[in-house]
Write a structure and sequence with these properties.
single chain; mainly alpha; globular
């Protein structure tokens, strides 16, 4: 936890360094921060900045890496639940007060929440941002000046809108308070997921989760909390509640709905009609209620739009950027990655390799931001596959490197390619190495000692 605190202190110092933001062309709808936007935002955004952002990125990577070593040492020591919760309280307090966010996502959430919870307007259509009732939110209008850009339209479901509408209402017109409350919401959600999975230290103390979900306020924490609730219901064979929780998770981020695929295969294998009916009823009822409420409040129901894209965020986007970054190249390479990833996921689910199937489904996304790798941490906590858990730990070490291309615009194609190679290659090699180690261990255990001779008949 000392490394978390040191990272925050060093980041405060680095924020006072002179820096300029790079004026780079947008990547077919990706967010590009142009000009000294930080001066109008209470918590600075360092996405796509040069100069001081290099220092901030280095500090972040080093701090998260050191904290990850400490996390692994704590897990090996076998700390108690009480100690784990105390350490989490310290880590969450540091993350909530962190001096910057690495991307504009937290401010986009504030925008959608402000429209839904304060202005009572639909965040699902492009419209001028009116900040008469909360002048401090005018900074968001400068951050996202183009009303027709994709970021001005919410890409999340009605549960997200309800949660972040409440955040905006509770902020009472303070943009800084809104970001802090978002962080608190993520801290509560991450702790909820850890407790539901009964793996408090593994999930809650993972530095990747603390940095990405709390300090940088990504809404993936809420999705993980609902998925953990689904897992807890599944363990108790309460399939109706399990499906209801999956729907709620999907109405935060639509990718969570892929959890229905392994669940459907499980129900089909068991061949229980009553279980299938209960699962369908739970999903249908939850979807009907939330859809009705969304239609009543905003006149529309949406689970979000197409998957996000950003330069250098996945192999397909790297190839598209190398091919010139045209819209057709983005669509072609992105579609190939989605199809290949989902086919692989389906094949793995059919072979009952649920954890690997989930990882393949995640890898199908044309934008693989570093906070997406936090989705693997709960799977690593509950899996019985030692090799997969080792791969998750490896991912927790290297995934933070993905912040470098986001925070430093002039990092370039070569650096982005190297980061992607490390992010994808290290967990895969770790998994293969752990499988090989397990195979050798099984061979040694099954070997018959040479001094044992079978008795003659």
């Amino acid at each position: 936890m000392l490394s978390l605190i040191a990272t925050a202190v060093a980041s405060v110092w680095a924020l006072h360094l002179p820096r300029t933001c790079a004026d780079i062309p947008a990547f077919s709808g990706a967010i590009s921060v142009r000009g000294p936007i930080e001066s109008v935002l209470p918590i600075p955004v360092v996405q796509n900045c040069s100069g001081g952002a290099v220092t901030l990125a280095v500090i972040l990577v080093l701090g998260c890496t050191l904290a990850t070593f400490a996390w692994q040492a704590l897990l090996r020591a076998g700390i108690s639940q009480r100690v784990a919760m105390l350490l989490y309280a310290v880590a969450a307090a540091v993350a909530v007060s962190f001096p910057y966010v690495s991307t504009t996502d937290a401010y986009a959430y504030a925008l959608y929440g402000y429209e839904a919870g304060v202005q009572h307007r639909s965040p699902y259509r492009a419209q001028p941002l009116q900040t008469n009732t909360a002048p401090e939110f005018s900074g968001i209008a400068r951050l996202f000046p183009d009303e027709r850009s994709g970021v001005r339209i919410a890409n999340y479901g009605p549960v997200f809108t309800a949660l972040y509408g409440g955040v905006a209402a509770a902020s009472r017109g303070s943009l800084k308070a809104a970001i802090v409350i978002e962080r608190l919401l993520s801290a509560i959600a991450l702790l909820t997921a850890a407790l539901l999975l009964r793996r408090g230290a593994f999930v809650a103390l993972a530095p990747l989760c603390v940095f990405e979900l709390i300090a940088f306020a990504h809404n993936d924490a809420a999705m993980l909390a609902f998925l953990a609730l689904a897992w807890a219901a599944y363990r108790k064979n309460q399939l109706a509640w399990c499906c209801a929780a999956i729907v709620l998770a999907g109405e935060v981020k639509g990718i969570a709905l892929l959890a229905f695929l392994p669940l459907a295969l499980h129900v089909a294998r068991n061949g229980r009609l009553r279980a299938a009916a209960a699962a369908f009823a739970g999903a249908a009822a939850t979807l009907a209620i939330t859809a009705a409420l969304s239609l009543w409040a905003f006149g529309t129901f949406s689970l979000g739009g197409a998957p996000a894209i950003a330069p250098f965020s996945s192999p397909s986007m790297l190839l598209a950027a190398a091919a010139g970054g045209s819209l057709s190249a983005i669509k072609i390479f992105g579609a190939l990655q989605i199809v290949a990833g989902l086919l692989l996921a389906a094949w793995l689910f059919l072979r009952r390799r649920t954890e690997l199937g989930a990882a393949a489904a995640m890898a199908s996304l044309p934008a693989l931001f570093p906070w997406y790798f936090t989705w693997l941490v709960p799977l690593g906590a509950i899996t019985r596959d030692r090799a997969f858990r080792s791969a998750v730990v490896a991912a927790a070490f290297v995934s933070i490197l993905g912040e470098i291309p986001l925070m430093v615009a002039n990092a370039g194609l070569a650096v982005a390619a190297l980061v992607l190679a490390v992010q994808w290659g290290v967990p895969a090699l770790t998994y293969a190495s752990a499988l090989n180690s397990d195979a050798r261990r099984r061979v040694r255990r099954s070997a018959v000692p040479s001094d044992r001779v079978s008795p003659k008949p």
